[in-house]
Write a structure and sequence with these properties.
alpha+beta, Ammonium transporter fold, Alpha-Beta Plaits, 2 domains, four-stranded antiparallel sheet, two-stranded antiparallel sheet, 19 helices, elongated
Length: 558
Amino acid sequence: MYSAIDSLWVAVAVAMMLLMQAGFTMLETGFTRAKNAGNIAMKNLSDFVVGSLVFWFIGFGFIHNSSVGGFIGKIDLFTRGQYLTGTVPLTLYLVFQMLFCCTAATIVSGAMAGRTRFGAYIAYSVLISSFVYPISAHWIWNEGGWLNQLGFHDFAGSTAVHLVGGTAAFVGAKMVGARIGKYSIDGKSKAIPGQSMSFGVLGIFLLWFGWYGFDAGSTLSITGDANILTVSRIIFNVTVCAATSACTAMMISWKRYSKPDISMTFNGALAGLVAITSGCDTLSPLGACITGIVVGFIVIFSIEFVDNKLKIDDPVGAISAHGIAGAVGTILTGVFSTDSGFLYTGYFSFFFVQILGVVAVIVWTAAAMIIGFSIINKLIGIRVDEDGELKGLDISEHGATQGTAIGHVILDGSAPSPVSLFRAMDVEDIDKEQMPDEYKQADGKMRKVVVVMNPNRLEVLMKALDKIEITGMTVTNVSGCGIQKGNTEYYRGSELESHLIPKVKVEIVIVTVPVALLIETIKKTIRTGKIGDGKIFVYDVERVVKVRTGAEGREALE
């Protein structure tokens, strides 16, 4: 018999969980460059709509249908079978489960942001929603699943959802490779700041709000004293663990970096939400607090290890905040669970079952995603081409308009990573003896060279200028038009006219570098052969004064 109150409770939980998709979108958008914001939004929407349909078509049956050998449920296309769903209708329970599947899928988006083909991402969403996630979820949540029969406990998905997503993120980020400019020639990791920490914290709060529905809603009932107490315990444990983890991450980052790091604190909060999800129904408040402290500590060093040692570019820390935190939270359930944890029972069997489940899910997900991503890469390619990445995926993948934020590019004075950007003329390979005299030696005059150019070529230009020992420049966002008279793009099928085109103005003052070499380097680096490549202006400079020392002329420039 269905219960109206329980059905309403699950419906509210579904609505709260849907906001988690918005939270993921905001978090990933804030942690990455503005030129990819539209692509990130599209991926998060797409893995929800595609994942929901695929899960309804085949995934749900693989989880909840009668088990075949404890490994997989029988095929049930379009979920037409009979299932025990307690006091809520099957259709409502199906939507609730869809959101779990979509959460697992969307975790990968942030780890592969800024360089992944949209078509490849859709193919991945189909794979994880139809097969990869349902298999491991069957092991854990189906009564016939082999981990379930061993007593493995993962109440709302630290392992079933987040470890699966985190492992898939690890494989995907490794296979797609790092973003242009992430690692220097000697392999040193270089920061690529996100566009907005305000977006990031909004994402965290949306996720935190949705998490109450994610965890507490997994009771599927709020009637009866026992269920009310369980829901209350879950909500309290989620709050305590996430808050403790955030505080721990903040304090550790404060100690290590001399300032409380914003993004690491956000990752700490997210890691706490993930970690408590396994044992939120059975941990005591003290157990939840200790779990938060442990995972808040681990997530900082995990992010550093993945970035600096493994050289895997994960812009939002999804591998650590979901994968590592999910594994740690599941294992700590074997310690602090008031029902079966060894601190309360004195027996380690449940603890070892928790470890076994974590290892099994990692092995399964990693193997499936290595094969899956390899096939996708073979058929359509995972990574966008170099030019598309530099332009931004909003333009290259979706044809969307692009803003002019200077945060689109690296402006920390360092050269981008050693990829083959400087194709037309590699300065290091030039035979100095074969160069014209005007390229070999400067004439001693001070000159200012101004370049008005396409913003998408700025990183390429910086790479080239570094090779000819140009280290100082001023970069400004500007707008203008020449013979283009503006450009016409499309928004929602209608023409969008822009009479002022976003440009970048680069100003360089030289005295030791030959002006002819500089001009030729700029020309061959930024030229695409299309209208809008830009112009170069050269001016004589009468006087240069360094304010700090009072030095003038050549000495001021050196």
